[in-house]
Design a protein that fits this description.
By secondary structure, the chain is α/β, with parallel strands linked by helices. It contains 21 helices and twelve strands. Residues 522-543 are annotated as: Disordered.
């Protein structure tokens, strides 16, 4: 995980404040610079509760969202490689609440009402959603190596129809928005047989607006369809997501079957393995990027708080002193889109920094504008100074911490299963083929390469670069790739190729044409026997 350990040298800003860690610096800036602005202009009532120490010190969190029976709980079990307290798996909607799966020395379950009074957990502000939510929120604690680096939030399975949304007893989308602002990764799970996005699922995804960089999509149970069907399913999923996630960028979708059972269709096995490794690397990187994510979220929060202050103070300024307050209030609420445009032009604010106008109009109905505070430029300038100078100090500290103590990756569970050994990704394939064999793997096809070699008119057992180029160009690979292959194959750097070096070049071309990457340096097992420093008896080619 990212280093939260105190170091000998911290970051000192221009005011002389000394930060021992990035976490301490973030918490100090928020408390001293941003929090006064939020409290003055009722930011916590309109947008998001105040941040606490646990929000800055918590481990990276992964939020899983999806319709029922798409494999959310199974996915967690797959990562942890063990059951967790409170886990229920079935084809029907089994997870009927939120489960925070976290590390703990003793295995057990902490109910929601007890969880929101624990100052060490980042869930205290969930108390605002009431007993209906807290009765369906638990923390599942257990000793697990994966959970030492990250925490995972399981959510209720989403059903279609109005009934499910009303019967929850709490604002499901608002709870998801609360989590979305605080987690490091949001994973939307889809089943290859359940691609429809229901009304509630659509609302849930829209609740993550502004958190697009955190969203990843997993198309689970992809082994239950063949290649042709998978292609159609993938296209249908992208089309459905395009209607809900309104961004020009294409969201990253991982294909696979994330459970420890045999694949039903093995024709896409290599694809599934590559996709799962990509997803694992993305999750493993979360501790390394945790401080940057917190820094980024603080900047986003500061920009929104500034805009909110401008809106509130503008409404205060426009209110009459004595008569006609209600009428003026209704007029200002109706004119809110125009007010946004005015503030945007007056203060040079990006349109994307403004809160949702419809939601803002609805919330403003419940407030007396005459009691709003006037604009206090000292608070605004303090936040501006924080963004302009003090954030840069923390950015430098992040690089300094990483150089002194590289952050650990997420390990244990499924992350350890196929890293090393013969079942590691790419083991025995491409450039690593032949690494565990006694003979030189190129020798298996050398007789074919020799036939080509002797047609290129070798002189003293070697062919020139010009003649080799003519043959290598037949592969149609770009010159940049062929140039790299030449450097790898010309072991003695004499600008010519003997029969073994030419065979090696042909072998590397074959590897590249099969879709594998080339190494920057030639592995020992591919060095031609005649060019090895201490050739063994097994290296000698048969006569």
């Amino acid at each position: 995980m990212f280093s939260w350990v105190k170091q000998e040298q911290g970051g000192r800003n221009k005011d002389g404040e000394m930060y021992q860690t990035v976490t301490e610096g973030l918490q100090s800036l928020y408390t001293k610079k941003l929090l006064p602005l939020e409290e003055t202009y009722l930011f916590h009532d309109f947008h998001s509760p105040a941040l606490e120490a646990a929000d800055f010190q918590s481990k990276p969190m992964v939020l899983l969202v999806g319709q029922y029976s798409t494999g959310k709980t199974t996915f967690i079990r797959y990562l942890l490689e063990q059951d967790f307290p409170g886990m229920r798996i079935g084809p029907e909607p089994t997870t009927d609440g939120f489960i925070a799966v976290m590390h703990g020395e003793n295995e057990g379950v902490v109910p929601g009402n007890a969880l929101v009074v624990d100052p060490k957990k980042p869930f205290r502000k969930l108390n605002a959603f009431g007993n209906s939510f807290l009765n369906r929120f638990i923390c599942s604690q257990m000793p697990n190596q994966v959970l030492q680096s990250i925490s995972i939030i399981d959510t209720p399975g989403i059903l279609s129809g109005e009934k499910q949304r009303i019967s929850r007893g709490y604002d499901f989308a608002e709870v998801l928005r609360w989590f979305g602002e605080r987690v490091d990764r949001i994973i939307l799970l889809f089943d290859a047989h359940k691609l429809d996005i229901s009304d509630e699922f659509s609302e849930a995804i829209k609740a993550f607006k502004g958190q697009d960089d955190k969203i990843r999509v997993v198309l689970n149970k992809a082994d239950q369809v063949d290649t042709q069907q998978l292609m159609r399913v993938y296209g249908a999923l992208m089309w459905s997501l395009g209607k809900v996630i309104n961004t020009p960028e294409v969201v990253r979708v991982y294909l696979g079957s994330f459970w420890a059972k045999p694949l039903q269709n093995t024709e896409n096995r290599r694809l599934f393995e590559a996709e799962s490794q990509d997803l694992f690397r993305d999750i493993q990187s979360l501790p390394r990027n945790a401080a940057l994510r917190k820094l980024n979220d603080l900047i986003k929060r500061a920009r929104l708080a500034k805009v909110h202050a401008y809106i509130i103070s503008y409404l205060k300024k426009e209110m009459p002193s004595l008569f006609g307050r209600e009428k003026k209030k209704e007029e200002l609420i109706m004119r809110l889109p125009e007010i946004y445009t005015t503030l945007q032009r007056e203060h040079h604010i990006s349109p994307g920094d403004f809160p949702n106008v419809a939601k803002m109009q609805d919330m403003l109905q419940h407030y007396d504008f005459s009691k709003f505070p006037s604009l206090k430029m000292k608070l605004i300038e303090s936040v501006d100074k924080m963004l302009a100078t003090k954030i840069a100090v923390l950015m430098a500290m992040i690089r300094e911490e990483e150089s002194k103590q590289p952050p650990a990756m997420v390990s244990g569970g499924a992350f350890e299963g196929s890293q090393d050994g013969p079942f590691g990704q790419g083991y025995g394939e491409g450039i690593s083929a032949g690494a565990d064999t006694e003979d030189w793997i190129v020798s298996r096809d050398k007789h074919r390469y020799d036939e080509i070699f002797y047609t290129l008119m070798p002189v003293n057992g070697k062919i020139t670069g010009v003649n080799a180029k003519k043959e290598m160009m037949n592969s149609r690979l770009p010159n940049t790739v062929l140039g790299k292959i030449w450097k790898l194959a010309d072991c003695d750097r004499d600008g010519m190729l003997d029969d073994e070096e030419f065979a090696l070049a042909q072998h590397l071309i074959k590897i590249k044409l099969e879709g594998y990457e080339l190494p920057t340096e030639l592995p020992d097992h591919l060095v031609p026997p005649a060019h090895r420093k201490n050739p063994t008896k097994s290296d000698k080619l048969p006569a």
